[in-house]
Amino acid sequence: MTTVILNRRNLLAAGGFVVATGASGLLWPARAEDLAPTESMTGGSNNYRKGAAIVDRIGKGGFWMSGTVRRAGDGVPLAGQRIQIWAHTVEGQEHEPQSHGATLTDKNGAFRLEMPQIIPIFGQPHGHLAYDSGEFKTVFLRPVMRSAKETSLEAHFVLQPA
Amino acid sequence: MRLARAALIWIALATAICVPIALAATSPQLAWRGPVYILAGFSGIGALGLMLVQPLLIAGYLPGLSAYRGRRVHHWIGGALVVAIVVHVAGLWITSPPDMIDALLYASPTPFSPWGVTAMWAIFAVALLAIFRRRLGLRLRTWRVAHMLLAIVIVAGSVVHGILIEGTMETVSKTALCALVLVAAIKVLADLWARIKRGSLRGEVITRQ
Questions:
Q1: Which ipTM score applies to this complex?
Q2: Do B166 and A148 touch (CB under 8 A)?
Q3: Model pTM?
Q4: Given the DSSP bridges, would you call strands A127-131 and A110-115 parallel, antiparallel or unpaired?
Q5: Beta carbons of A123 and B108 less than 8 Å apart
Q6: Closest CA to B116 of B82, B150, B154
Q7: CATH dotted code for A63-159
Q8: Where are the domains of chain B?
């Protein structure tokens, strides 16, 4: 009878397999080929105004919106991508032009734009971001702040070709 | 002595409703809101306050009001609730149409929206049933059971809606008001249910209007 599954040899072999696959996971931590594109969030496009101008800062600032833009699949950072940002802030409501602005990603695919403090609107302190430049598929994000007292917020884009 | 007790009950009720409203009126967030948005918000807070009065009226817990008067006031406040909800929704719609449309379509990213919208439909349903129940030929018992079931939806929906919102209401007073609304509704509904089951709730008490 050779039905014994749990003997020492099997355990050692299985253990070795786990260690080997685990170690390979550590050596190549980002299985970048699998990076899935970011889906637009519900309500993300609410009060969007197409074509917000690229600005150094929205209004008087005091709050930081930051994030990254990468390519779906291989995860390569995308430089020079235009990200539009808007929110209900201490300087205006979501739909008002002064609440909107845009910025470009740097060579590492990161963006960072100073804007007025976001305050809760419709029951949640949240911001809106859009990638809507045509080269990749449009994505609208709507990140929520953990607390209305926070002075920064992050959102990350993984884009797929349009 | 009875007068003192009556005064105490009314003062407690006024405090439970007015303190949360007064604290919301001091919210720093009001500075960043337009008048329509402010009106919409307070309309919702007011509706939550009225929701505490409704079961107390129908159970006859409020001194100085006869059963008949209590029932009449309950009807009027029911109407006021409908108006408050309409103002709440209309004001929010004007403030941000896409957000309100998402909420009404149950497609909103905010977890509290479906609770509020469901409570709204339940309030409208009670109002319509109350207006048309004779024309519909509803039996008194059927109407009562329907109203009680809808009241559960209204209270549960409104309380969860209110608790989850990060808005102008101060947290402690909001939680206290929501707890009172919940306790009052559960107590009155349980008593009514027991009476309906026992068959001791007389039809004429309700039909003499």
A1: 0.82
A2: yes
A3: 0.84
A4: unpaired
A5: no
A6: B154
A7: 2.60.40.10
A8: 2-207
